[in-house]
Amino acid sequence: MVKAVLAMYWSRLGSLNALQLTRPAQFWKSWLDGPLCSADSQGRVVARMEAASLRQGIHHVYERLKRNKALPDLYGLAVAVLDGHETSASYRRCCTGCLKRTTNSGQTQFYHRNVTLMLLCASPPNRPAVRLLLDLEPQQPGEGELTPALRLLERVLAAYPRAFDLLLADAYYAVAPFLNFLLGHGKQAIVVLKDERRDAYEDAAGLWAQQPPQLGSYASRNCRWWDLRDLLSWPDVHGTIRMVRSDESWTVKPQRTKERTLQTSSWVWLTTLSVAQARTEQVVRLAHLRWDIENHGFNELVNDWYADHVYRHQSQAIECFLLLAFLAYNLFHAFFALNLKPELRRGRTMEFWVRLIAADLHAVPRFALPHAPP
Ligand SMILES: [Zn+2]
Predict the structure, then answer these.
(1) Centre of ligand 1 from the C-alpha of residue 18, in Å
(2) Which of 6, 8, 23, 272 is most buried, with most CB under 10 Å away?
């Protein structure tokens, strides 16, 4: 059942019914050593799978890659990123795990949301970087996002005690319970600080005005950086906090107007990292990687892998299908980056390999077609 669902994700079929249509393919005989189940049985069995065993499967892949030195540190640190993600929304269907909200039109909408952790790595020599989706924790009805995030971290830190030193997160996590939890486990954090919180922190505002900026660059942007160290007065945090600000400017030339226009952005991050652990420039580069979970994780899972599709609307099924999507994602990226020889990978996109796998699933022997066209 696991192998059949993995093949469904790798070939990006998008539904159990589409998977069922490939039943006559020769491929299943060699891949499963037997026939493929019906869509209904497949959904029923996944709904009863133990999420813990699927998590062990993901851990096994991580362990093998780690042992083979395929997951190098980033700027001298092992880095992970955490974020919340909504997977589905419906006005009609709900289950015991559904969260509820009232829309502007007064309708009740049901949805599922989870907190996900992704491991980020540098590129091994001559290979693309591999990112691993390590785990997820569903948000339960009545909970805020912080509760499942801490539950997820408890489990991940027990299973992967040395997988990361630094955790990146968005502005929602710029709160003492989150930072203290990480410091208590010997881990560091970089979190975004939003405008309203920045203004509230007058110390920093005053200090920025006094300190001349360092000039630097990030991804062809010109930057001005301020690095305020050893801030002892961040409310309720058990440790010193550092605040790094980056004002960035760059030009773009839109195809339509062909006129160069200046773009700017200003970021402020809170971090528990000391200067000895990361210089200003490293903090800025690491902080920008917070978007990797959106760009390479959620966006790819939703648009390319159809991982947000509700394969069976039941909370355990949704969790297990997502964990299987994580396993499929990790194996596929490890295969693409590390297993394929560079000369085979060169000039062939990921899409090419997806189509190659899908072609195998659609190679139906002629005689197996129920009503062959005349
Ligand atoms: Zn539901």
Answers:
(1) 22
(2) 8
Ligand 1 centre and the CA of 98: distance in Å?
Answer: 4
269 in Cβ contact with 243 (< 8 Å): yes
* 8 Å CB contact between 79 and 286: yes
Please give all residues whose CB falls under 5 A of ion ligand 1, grouped by chain where several chains appear.
Answer: 95, 98
59-63: long-range pairs with CB below 8 Å, 24+: 59/159, 59/160, 61/132, 61/327, 61/330, 61/331, 61/334, 62/119, 62/132, 62/134, 62/160, 62/163, 62/330
Task: List beta partners, residue 221.
Answer: 218
- Closest Cα to residue 277, out of 374, 111, 131, 165? 165
pLDDT of residue 299: 92
- The angle at the Cα of 81, spanning 302 to 160, to the nearest 5 degrees, equals 110
Which residue spans within the chain are E strands per DSSP?
79-90, 99-102, 108-120, 132-138, 166-169, 188-192, 214-218, 221-231, 241-252, 261-271
The first and second tokens of residue 119, run together, are 């491991």
- What digits encode the pLDDT tens for the residues 94-147? 898 999 999 999 999 999 999 999 999 999 888 889 999 999 999 999 999 999
**CA–CA distance, 242 with 227 (Å, rounded to integer):** 7
CA of 139 to the centre of ligand 1 (A): 11
| Å from CA of 145 to ligand 1 middle | 17
* Distances from the Cα of 134 to the Cα of 45, 124, 360, 370, angstroms: 23, 19, 29, 42
Q: Are 3 and 28 in contact (CB under 8 A)?
A: no
Distance 358 CA to ligand 1 centre (A): 30
pLDDT tens by residue, 33-73: 999 999 999 999 999 999 999 999 999 999 999 999 999 99
Cβ contact 204:228 at 8 Å:
yes
- How many angstroms separate the first and last alpha carbons of the chain? 36
Residue 286 CA to ligand 1 center (angstroms) comes to 35
